[in-house]
Design a protein that fits this description.
Keywords: ATP-binding, Cobalamin biosynthesis, Nucleotide-binding, Transferase. One of its GO terms (molecular function) is corrinoid adenosyltransferase activity. It catalyses: 2 cob(II)alamin + AH2 + 2 ATP = 2 adenosylcob(III)alamin + 2 triphosphate + A + 2 H(+). Belongs to the Cob(I)alamin adenosyltransferase family. This protein is mainly alpha-helical. Helices cover about 55% and strands about 5% of the residues. The chain has a two-stranded antiparallel sheet with strand order 1-2. Strand 1 and strand 2 form a beta hairpin. Helix 1 runs antiparallel to helix 4, helix 3 runs parallel beside helix 5 and helix 4 runs antiparallel to helix 5. The longest helix is centred in the middle third of the chain and has 25 residues. It is elongated, with a radius of gyration of 19 Å.
Length: about 200
Amino acid sequence: MGNRLTQIATRTGDDGSTGLGDGSRVPKDHLRVQAMGDVDELNSQLGVLLAEPLPEGVRNLLVSIQHELFNLGGELCMPGYSLLKEDAVLRLDEALAHYNAELPRLAEFILPAGTRSAALAHVCRTVARRAERSVVHATLQGEDIGTTPRHYLNRLSDLCFVLARVLNRANLDGLGGDDVYWRSERLLSGKLESTAD
């Protein structure tokens, strides 16, 4: 992992393959590459969120998470290699406990809405879930990926949900202030029926 990029347009991927960190080449639709791409997209979405006005504590947390996600991507790039440590998961657990303690109990499901920063946090949440699914799928298909990446992505998705609620309350763009609750017409009319088979 000591090498740094010196050339971006190598043209070596023109045949539909890409190189992994161990020097092997795999198709660009390989399960490991899919997981790497989803983690990269998640990191990029966090970058968009970081372009918004944010409470300083949330900003510092997200910057740290971006670095951890880069470690996670490096681990996925190197079969059999471990780079993301379990203490990274513990830091997410601590952040979850810290921010969740400030929030009221949910009264109903909430919509991914409110302030722009809260909505972007929800986008990050959904991309984290997709990245988690990709890692799980690759592992189930025999890729040598440890448990820490999926634990980290699972916690991170939860944290993004909590941070969306925090950001709505921070209301830095004046468009939030609270959770945006789901209002089901069937619930409102009292005609909720089971849809189970």
